[in-house]
Specification:
Number of domains: 1
Mean pLDDT: 82
CATH superfamily: NCX, central ion-binding region
Distance between the termini: 31 Å
Number of helices: 14
CATH architecture: Up-down Bundle
Structural class: mainly alpha
Length: 336
Amino acid sequence: MLDSLPIAVAVLVGGALVLLTAGVKFTKVVDELADRTDVGEALAGAVLLGAATSMPGLITTVTGALEGDAGFAMSNALGGIAAQTTFLVLADTIYRSSNLEHAAASLPNIVSAALLTAMVGAVLVAATGPELDVLGVHPATPVLVIIYLFGLRLVRSANAAPMWSPEETEDTVEDEPDPEASGAPLWHLWSWFGGLAAVVAVVGFAVGRSGLTLAAETGLTGSVVGALFTSVVTSLPELVTVLTAVRIGALTLAVSNIVGGNTFDVLFVAAADLAFRDGSVYHAAGAQALFVSALTVVLTALLIAGLLTRERRGIGFEGVAILGTYAVGMAALVAL
């Protein structure tokens, strides 16, 4: 059904519309869950919202790996991180009060961003190191899961008992419960959350199949399609959630959704390695996928610099640098 180029393009467009719609509801549900369960916006954004809105990307990545296209699988996973970091800058442009990274200063967000850098670095080490695998699985795959779980513990500790805190200014927006919460029962909120997660998972499978068809019918490599097209489509829930979160004043949730979601997205590579049956996905992905991996490290480092320096107005040096680096990086990817 999805082997026709026109149908594949139509599915990509339709999937984008569904994911855009789901993103708005996701944000409101998770924001209220964060308040009602006392989890806090930073952790709720990193785990609940970040993981749920990442579901389409996960399914798309695994679909590509099962079909044997390692470049598509890895580039979709890490290309989504690059796109979502850029989305944060777009959200900054609509937040007029101050620089978004300044207003949403949060130690858990900085820890999450540092964790993300370490995880993508581990992917690069695995991809450029010796070709190893045990029953078709590279040792780096379980290591990524261990790093992620340990990192969540660090994020939780940074939220519960911070040993460092940003200086509060008149532009700092505190993470406080929303006084206008719906008051819906918790089971109702969790039901919405589960239902939305199921919908975006189905869309992720359709987008993955469409992306593979797009690569086959146009002659583009799987890495280019994954980084430029499917990763952006499957990242649209993050775009909508970050814009919605900024609009409703949940600034910490906005930043943590992107940073925490990006950290979770690195686990897509581990999932791809498990699904890829022709050896290690790290070594089969190719130079274009490695380029996308390196690009995500640069973009995340720029974001960390912005979170630490906290410029007061505009999108800051980090916003300009992220937009420019992403644009140049995508152009260079196509030229490879």
